[in-house]
Specification:
Helix content: over 70%
Number of strands: 0
Strand content: under 5%
Distance between the termini: 116 Å
Shape: rod-shaped
């Protein structure tokens, strides 16, 4: 009977140790899960900031390119206007010649 009591006590000690280990394991898993969640949130936040920064930079570049293109277009229009003002007869003959070429091209179709 004494042996049986000792075996039951040993078994109870082992069972208590397993319960403690399981409780510790649950706690460790909960801590790990929280750390993974926090890390994920930080990564998402960091990625969001990088995307916002890149979008702002691209927007600035696009505006600069559009401004340059607009300025270039204005310069071209001014240049053509100046050419028409300086040489009206040459411009008229060039337009007439171009009209003839386009007319011939369209006639062939």
């Amino acid at each position: 009977m004494e042996v049986r009591l000792m075996a039951e006590r040993d078994l109870q000690k082992d069972l208590d140790a397993v319960k403690d280990d399981l409780a510790k394991l649950r706690s460790d898993i909960a801590d790990l899960t929280q750390k993974l969640i926090d890390t994920g949130k930080n990564e998402v936040s960091s990625a969001r900031n990088r995307v916002r920064t890149e979008a702002r930079n691209l927007g600035r570049e696009l505006r600069a390119t559009l401004n340059e293109t607009g300025e270039q277009g204005l310069k071209t229009v001014e240049s053509v206007e100046q050419l028409l003002t300086d040489r009206p007869l040459v411009s008229l003959l060039a337009a007439f010649g171009l009209g003839l070429l386009v007319g011939k091209f369209l006639q062939r179709r």
